[in-house]
Amino acid sequence: MIAPPQVTGPKPKPKPPQPTIEPYKPAVPKKANQQEWRKGFRGKKNGIEFFLNIERKPDGSLHARYWVNPGSPKGWQLIGNVHQDNTFILRGIENSASFSGKFSPNAVSASASFNKGDQAVSSLQLTQAPLRLPNKVRPVSDRQKTDSTLDMDTVLSAVQALAKQLGKPFDKAQACKHVAQIISACSSAGVRDANQLAYVFATAVWESSGFTAFSEKYMPGWTAKEYFEQAYGPNPTRVLPKDAKRLALGFSAAKILETRKRRNLEELGNTEAGDGYKFRGRGYVHLTGRANYAKAQQYAVVPSGIRRNGKIPSLLADPDLAASDSEIAAIILAKGMATGSFTSKSLGDYIDSQKTDFIGARKIINGRDEAARIATGAEAFASALSNGTPDSQDGDPIASPALTEITTAEEQAILKVPAGGYDLEELKKMRAGIVIGSLNGIPAYFNGSDESQTWGNSYSKDGAVYYGFKWQCVEFIRRYTSINTGKYISHRGNASTFYKNSIPDGGNTFDGFIQCRNTDPKTGTKIGSHIKPKPGDIIVFSTNTYGHVAIISEVGNDYIVVAQQNVLTNFKEELPLTKNGNRWIIGGKTQCWLRH
């Protein structure tokens, strides 16, 4: 056996020790609330498809827009917050929608619930999707941002113009603090549109009497406790001076007190003796009622992170904070109006990039009280803001409010026109049209003291559409309906012919309209319709001559408001509305209302 050859030469160097390789550990993902991001999400449940664009802002707030399919192509805006545990809530500023749930780490998905009115979708799984662009809506960055494009002097000048229009005092030095607080609160609440800001300030200046009265006033002859217990307490026993109008209309004192008691208990939540006085109107919006103070604590005070003496202040324990602490008052005002927390109606319901309804916006606060007057203040603010910052309007006109009335002085001047007969200049003005008011920007004109008078034929600006005889009632409803809805009324005849005895309640009548009958054709008694009137309906009245027609501009639970022409200067009129069983009855000489 031959031995293997011996290998000679240098020995190999020993290998250096190898570093120990630790097992791979992925980085701990940041929580959704610790990052700035902008992402799209998508999910489907119960046959409804949801899309959301959500942006986490540097201050930790969330700004979003959502769409549903089927639904509006422009979507709706939301604001909210994400918390330390990645839970979040988003609330609509253009409607009453809300999303609440929890993001996954890094916010790549979410589990949420959706609520809007009586609609509710639970366990909605949202996964990341491409950002969606709104249809026919300019990005927020392209619209006027009052917090970034306006300085304090510009806003103060606009507030001064607003106060002057409303007949309220204005002290620049005193106003500075309040204006700054409101701008800051509006910015946090996502209120950056100029017209929305205009209505927030119009509300604040009106309710606080130009930043001079932050607690609700009471009537002379009463003590504060007596008055507010009767106005807002759980057991009112005396009618108030403000009830005089309802008493004159035939409402009984017992009915007024019964309605007030139910409102105070159910809506205001004043269930204990003394609540009426304790939770009386305070602040920029005159927050009223235990229930509303409790809501404001949750939607405004707690999320704001405000501390007083190291603690979260309590509006229920110290309701005076709603008046004495301007920061808290401003947050209540801005967030309440943005989210619809006062009446379920929000700024977005009446004012956004597509519409500006300063009169309807009064429903955000308390319905219709002084709606037209407050609207003029918002217009003054918006106009002053526009004049101060011409580049910030981006070419968008400020839309007309829903219903605008002329002043008493203008009304008196118009009524003097035919007193001594018409001269040539007055005849010219009458034919051209002397405005007595407008609805959605469509004017109504003075026809003089003779209702049968006409001033020629009325046509559209291009002469292609015939509206009727100037300036009779039929001309206004035909012109308004044509311009506002695109629906042309081809029916010919005076106003009385718009009501058809032969057409039953809910039956089809001329030009595709539905007739909602108010009276029994045999007895003439008011029996009402099962269809509740709504804005835009044409209302038909009986008269001793040719009948009368008008447009319904507003509907409440116990009243309607109509806009009309050829009743001297009485452009706006309010009528009682009652419900008997399942039927709605309008007062006055109403025969029917027509709906397309």
UniProtKB/TrEMBL annotation:
Residues 1-10 have a biased composition (Low complexity). Residues 1-35 are annotated as: Disordered. Residues 448-587 form the Peptidase C51 domain. Pfam families: CHAP. InterPro entries: CHAP_dom, Gsp_Synthetase/Amidase, Lysozyme-like_dom_sf, Papain-like_cys_pep_sf. SUPFAM superfamilies: Cysteine proteinases, Lysozyme-like. It comes from the Bacteria. This is Peptidase C51 domain-containing protein.
